[in-house]
TrEMBL record:
Residues 1-10 have a biased composition (Basic and acidic residues). Residues 329-464 form the Pyrrolo-quinoline quinone repeat domain. Residues 1-42 are annotated as: Disordered. Pfam families: PQQ_2. InterPro entries: PQQ_rpt_dom (IPR002372), Quinoprotein_ADH-like_sf (IPR011047), WD40/YVTN_repeat-like_dom_sf (IPR015943). This is Pyrrolo-quinoline quinone repeat domain-containing protein.
Amino acid sequence: MAVRPDDRMVPVELVDDDEVVGPSPRTRTPRQRPADPDGADLPVGRAHGALVRWAVAGVVLGAIAVVSVATTRGTTEPTVGPAALAEPLAEVWAAAADDVLAAHDGVVVVQSTGTRHPRVRGLDEATGQELWSVPLGSGGIADTCHPGVTTAAATAAATAWCWRDQHWNADPASDQLVLTPQALVGIDVGSGEVISEREVTEASAGWAVEGDELLLAARGDGEIRLSRVSPAGWRTVWSTTVSLPPEPRGLRHTMWLEVTEGLAVLHGATTAVVDAADGRVLGSWTASLTEEGTILDGAEIAVTPWGFAAWSSAVEGMRLPEATWFDRSGRAVGQLVGELAEPEATDASVPDVLLVTRDGGDTLVAMSPGRGADLWQIPIAGGNVVAREQGLAVVAAGDAVTAYEVLSGARVWTRPVDGLHPEITGLSDGSSVLVTAVRARRWTSLVYRLADGGLLWSGTVPGGGEVGLIPSPPRLEMLGDTPVVWMGRTLVWVD
């Protein structure tokens, strides 16, 4: 049994290898060919399964590059690294928060912005005890902070970064209002002290922390200048410009920046994808400003570790489902139809195959954008893809968790889960997957081995409490290699 800090007991069920559902890795023997997606569940031996996958690939894919076949589950080594989900999750501490900015050197930096007194705080990673706290908002050091930490600043201290808007504040010396300029503010992760402040004179279109540097989007006359800046001496690493369409009189285009998988995406009337490493513009799209009622961005962008999709076509203000798929160099590979269904937990295996949903999310489709061909599809009404690892797509849908070969759609294993909540995004550490169900009016985690679907353990979601008439589901996510649980606006740190 695991114990909360307040001594409330949390039930946890450990499952012996001898009791797992499905074949044990010690006793597995080569199996017959796996069933098709609509057939019975037949676990597959690796050696025989690899031969089957080559045969299926030859029939289904034809011209797909050999490199994709070489990265299927039969020829990819299991992920090497910490097994974050190997043991039951136990609550260590809980704290009110809206975002985690960083976890560095024993300090967890969180911010709370949706409260009466917004703050950014440093918490002891071992105990959750507050080490320091600084105010945000008018009269505070800044207005909001972004996730990420740099360690290459001139002070050599680990630094969390925040943005301060212009504010009129009372000057304590003169008792008069003075205008505090907009600026980037660096906070020492260990002490909460302001150790860097860089005034920004240009209008901002967004910013982000990327590695040990900052990305800044500045608005100019008819353009956005996107720069990568090192806080050590504020040296500009690269700078590029993106043109904006004319602005209606008295209005300004809304622009904002996000960085995902090393790609900077500028959203707005002009949407652009920029390589965050060198500033190359990989693609840009401008919205039509002549069509009445159109308020769409230039494009909708979805990013994965091996490429990105852009939905840019619209009719009468409605976005069409057809998108173009680009590789990491910005080369247009082909077309896709639907919404991207790639999970955050992915090892990018079989990169020539994409997972998309159609029919309002009720159908999962694997397709090859280069060939414009659908490879296989399954119904997943209300479900989602939990993980894509080692050539497998693990899907939570209905009352079961099922693993499919990404390349062929062959079902590898399936496990029924009573009370499964497939709409709750799962977790993966590369060797196992976690899903959430309701058992005895408790939010329950169940963790399965990726290789064969064997149940490793099940236990109450830390901090979950009893499920009421109007359930407030937990949100689970990986913070680096550490799983964490969000219950509303409460961060539950686990071990």
